[in-house]
């Protein structure tokens, strides 16, 4: 099959991905399905892996974990899928199922978790295999593949971040940074009557936030929110933004750090900015949140402003994502 592979990490500007025509097409084993990939999304995490911010766990690696397609073959014993079903695959490729974290519904913290496109080959290819328990049924979600793919990471991790924020109707939720994950969180929050305060410098992103009904749009790195917030979900991989975010979280409130990587962070004013607040981080993603997001996408229009690229253009899509040159909020590659 055709696949984009990563052998050695380097800056994405140096084009570390390589397009090959003869990568082995995976065959589904017992309990596995094979997905013929229709669309695959480019995630900031993929760039962290390509560039060496995160270690390389195998080489060559097919990156990518925003996968939407159609099941084309099923292994022995598979009962949840049949060929022709629409299916997705997310960052969580597998978990042990019996550790303390797994049996208490927190499989995202499983020490044996396997991540798609990091620990095993992922979605920058024509096919991927997955255990049927971790492939996500997508029949009944009224979106095309180009909108399903980005939902598979920003949508799913966004839903987990939203749950960790513990906000409900009438509460005030801040979003520090406005990329695709914030976009999906905002869609869910607005549907529940939560007031959303958006912090972004980008004029285009401010307009999108306003069109979705933001209560306030500004820049929390330079100012405080007009009212103290019940929670903030923060996205920048920059440690300095942490205390800036905390300055707008009310005592009793929650700061959720959504990034997978961060530069060092310090809290200089414990009593003023941290005391009474809770900080949580989003580590990986779990199926309970994924399935809630799938259900939400049956009720709420989860289409997203995006730039669509051909499979041959995948590396250019990654470069343009890295440079912040996209027109929309995310880059999606049409595979076949
Ligand atoms: Zn486990
Ligand atoms: Zn991702």
From TrEMBL:
Keywords: Metal-binding, Oxidoreductase, Zinc
Pfam families: ADH_N, ADH_zinc_N
Location of the Enoyl reductase (ER) domain: 15-300
EC number: 1.1.1.1
UniProt cofactor(s): Zn(2+)
UniProt entry tagged with the keyword Oxidoreductase: yes
GO terms of molecular function: alcohol dehydrogenase (NAD+) activity; metal ion binding
UniProt GO cellular component terms: cytoplasm
Keyword Oxidoreductase included in the entry's annotation: yes
UniProt feature coiled coil, ranges: none
InterPro entries reported in the protein's UniProt record: ADH-like_C (IPR013149), ADH-like_N (IPR013154), ER (IPR020843), GroES-like_sf (IPR011032), NAD(P)-bd_dom_sf (IPR036291)
Domain of life: Archaea
PANTHER family found in the cross-reference section: ALCOHOL DEHYDROGENASE 1-RELATED, VACUOLAR PROTEIN SORTING-ASSOCIATED PROTEIN 11
UniProt similarity note: Belongs to the zinc-containing alcohol dehydrogenase family.
Protein name as catalogued: Alcohol dehydrogenase
Species per Swiss-Prot/TrEMBL record: Conexivisphaera calida
